[in-house]
Amino acid sequence: SLVKWWENESFQIPFSHKVFAMATAATRSDKGRLKQISTRRFIKQDSYSPHMSTARLRKLQKLLHNASTGRSSADPDALLLIMGIDSRYNEGCRELANHLLFDFFVVRRKDFEDGQYDEEAIDDLIIVIKQQSVHVYCNPINYPFLVPYIGPWANIQIHCLTEKEYEDDEKAEDFKIHSLIEMLQGCKRVAVPFSSYKRPKKSVPFDVERWPIIQAFASGDYQSGGFFTIQFEVSDISTQVHQCYLTMDPVALETIITTNLPQLDNQWSSMISTIEMECKQKGLLNITEDVIAGPLSTFYTFGKLSNANLASSNDTNKLPWKPFLLFGTRTEKESVKKHSGNSKHNAVFKTCGLANKPPCHMVCQAMSPNSPLYCTRTYFFGSDHDIYPVGDMKPVNQHGDGQTFTDLQLMTKVYIITVEACISAIYCYMESQSVVKASTALLTEIQKAAKNQNLPLPTEFFSYLASKGNIEFTIQAFNSMGQEMPITEGQHSLQLKVARICIYNIPSVENSGKTLGSIVFAETFLDSKFPVIDSRKMTSDSSACLILTRNIP
User: How much is the pTM?
Assistant: First the structure.
């Protein structure tokens, strides 16, 4: 890189850097030398680093050249990104700019508004990415904000006027078009990200001719050679670019943890508050699934509105689950699977137990609409509500040892066993990177704990449930946008993962032949595994695991 990064995370641009007419009061000292600018002053993400910035750029540059097959005559020579009014506010270009600049136009919006910066001046940006170099056009207003992001890029050429020169609107527009011509010099094939990942649409290369700066490019005043699409072979690179957005790098993870996770936690807290409020107003017996599930389903539905086009156009990446809340016997296997889709939750609490009586539990599932955060919990309604046991149901003792069990006690103990076994399975997967081994460890843990708890169930009961498909354990990986990704046995995946266990159709100990419903539990976690060489030059694996949703009650 042409930029030297100092220990205090500030940098300087050396004079060997090729900069066209670049001078801004915000970055120059009295002697005309560029001052140091602290990256932390401008960059909001704590996990940002020069390496992360370069890594994102290199992924895009690789799209211009396939290393495994060598450069093809059909490969683009450059990737063109034009912001703001010059591209008619093209969503694909803006999305790519935010990816390259770590959501610069999102996280800095308030700063720009508070500083009363002109939005058109901030959006005045053109980036041309070539295989071995990068050209950036900007202006003296947005330059100080952009430099910390683009500074680490190797072989970068910045085209920028001085503040005094930029005050002349006609001269500024002339300079911009001449810069674009200079930036594309030597290129024959130009790729453009016409559509965004969240709102994909069909585009044709000629669409670029509608952009104001491209129309000006064709003007005879600039001797550019005529229409842009005649001078260059234009292609749409949106699909390839979108794949770069799915990488779970540290900054993407930080966004999920600092933004998406608190939102999910707030919605879950709202659900709990809704239960308390409805119980005070209507009484527990009269609460309904749709009202209690309101905060979770509304949060998900509105969050998905921006991805409506994506959901309808990409059927192969449909999410496996949806938010739901179910009472009592409505949590049977068929019902849980059915409510993983779009269904109404309109059942009344007082009729969702055995014999249309109040139930002893409910299952809640929530997820972030645009990130891979999933959480499922089973909650229980205790005897302090004076609704359980109900009717003529009696506690039973199947072991003759004086210990009695109600359905509520059975369900709560099974749930505790299930949660502990699921957590153990997560750590087993962390060590082995094998879903099969984690599943085996989970079933063994459940059977062992059930025996120690002396549950009123046959010794082989859980094995029987597993053989009938009534114990379902999965570990699935999801990219940063929340879409499922494949997991390969024995290989570490860099994606976030969700461990989910369902124990379906648990039998009642108070009503022989009846089932109480199901227990479901799910956590989102991130695992890490890498080889470590010790002082004896022996290699061993170091593993760690972070369960992101563990603080959700």
Answer: 0.80
